[in-house]
């Protein structure tokens, strides 16, 4: 069993008003970038909610990745579940974090009460990549297709070796929204100018208890919007 992923924990500042909130960041980002404490952990603590910002492998504050086998989807989910206390949680994920959050709930790796999925793509970009072509694109800066070029640019900006292994590991167990779906109340959030969220209506329609809300912005702008944060807080506190 691989060790639990590191987390940043912020306890509630008063009487607990609900289960802990687990926050999962996106690819080539970080917990601090996607979930600034002044916007997320701080206000949630004041509302009586403990938070756990999980730091994913290969990313800032997360562990380096030594082998592809250490970061297949199933292994990452188990390491993620081991990072938070046993018991019911609410989970909020964005982009890659939303993909992992979906699987946490759908496969019942954690007992999830409410689920928020932001910036989720209906397809799995990692499964569509050729690992060898991606490595070559990271090394040379040239790629034959836009998807490989885009991912390579993100990889080059971080711990390239770790991120390459993470992409390959997650791609071995692709995200398939048709396979298993969360059965808990779920809020989908998508930017009005976010091409990565194309087809999200179809994905949301697979869930028995889901609502979809669009907020202003592209992929990163939507996450930073006040409208997204307001929607998340309202859903978790409802």
UniProtKB/TrEMBL annotation:
Listed GO MF terms: hydrolase activity
Pfam families linked to this entry: Abhydrolase_1 (PF00561)
Domain of life: Bacteria
Keywords assigned: Hydrolase
Keyword Hydrolase assigned: yes
Ranges where the AB hydrolase-1 domain occurs: 19-136
Transmembrane segments: none
Protein name: Alpha/beta hydrolase
UniProt source species: Amycolatopsis iheyensis
